[in-house]
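Shift notes (night). Ran L,D-transpeptidase-like protein while the centrifuge was going.
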Amino acid sequence: MYQSRYQSRSIKRRGTGRKARALFPFVLVCMAFLLNACGLNAGAHGTVYHGDESRIEQKKYGQNIHNEQLENLPTQSMKNRAKETLQVFENIVNQLKGSGGESASLQQRLDSAKKQLTTLTRQQDYYSFSAQLAVDLTEAQKARAGGNAQSLLSILKEEGENWGNAHKWHNPYDGKDYLLDSSYLELDDGYGVIPDLKAELAQGGSSQKVYDDIANALFHLYMLEANFNDTTPYNKEHPTDRQLLKHYDAQNGQVLVVSLTEQALRVYENGQFTKAFLVTTGRYNRPTPPGIFPLSDYLTNQLMMTLEPPGSPEYYDPVTVNYTIKFRDVGYLLHDTWWRKDYGPYTQFPHQDSGGDKQAGTGSHGCVNLPTEQLGWIFHNIKPGSKIIIY
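Came back to this:
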């Protein structure tokens, strides 16, 4: 994993015997006859061309299809997770009924989901089902909050803590356990989405704006949870990405989608998946914020430095990077990390980077890190003003 060398909140721009010999001619004649009978022909330099090679390949192809079909069958744990999540949804609907809350439309969603669950036959069906159920759960929790921003924030905080504690990742490098959704928690020094939303509430902004921001954070969390169990390769379209694009009406133009659990960035053009990169995002206690943000301030050769004192675990030596793109105020950037060698799953946690740079051995301070060539591609091909969705 990489340490981004970047303090997000303090930046300055920047591939054997005779008898045998007597029989030898007879054997050759027999072999020639057999070869001809089998449809095999001897080619130049002794090469044998198999006339039924295509049938052999067809058999192999058929076996491959069979194997793929077996691999695509949903596992029992996958079925169990879907049932458990559906039960959570049903519990909320029943709670709303008992309290006299609005539940008619949610009951319709629930009935539809129950019916759909009985028709799922492929793993991909379950992934899409889970993504849709995440949408339904968000709507159910919003109804449960009854339009009260503080109540919805409490629901978000509880969901983040419960899911995180139930899905701890044990790091063999340092022997510690880490919650995979720290971006959605309340962390020290004001990090995590909960302190941000609390501050927004305290500042007395538009109540609807604050409520929508909390609801969107909850939506992103539920998408993270659904995507966590999705084994689709990182360089393929994910159902959760599709739901996020739909939610933000972002199916036109260029959109970057970052999955925090996969440590991957996917590029969409007019709603179509086009490209993917592995990334490294914020370390556990300096997580990358979830949300949707515009890309701006495309700069080159920027000096990055921190105000943390030497000796602090958050300190890094000043470093110049090739490309930076801002996605959020107070210094949250996409930038290249030429000193990093490894990117992808769990590189946001402490590890030994294969390149040997000690400061590449954990996540960033909240930025999204990529290799120089890949960040350069984004820099030159993704237009300023395009959106980035992080979940």
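The CA atoms of residues 20 and 27 lie 10 Å apart. The first strand starts at residue 40 and ends at 42.
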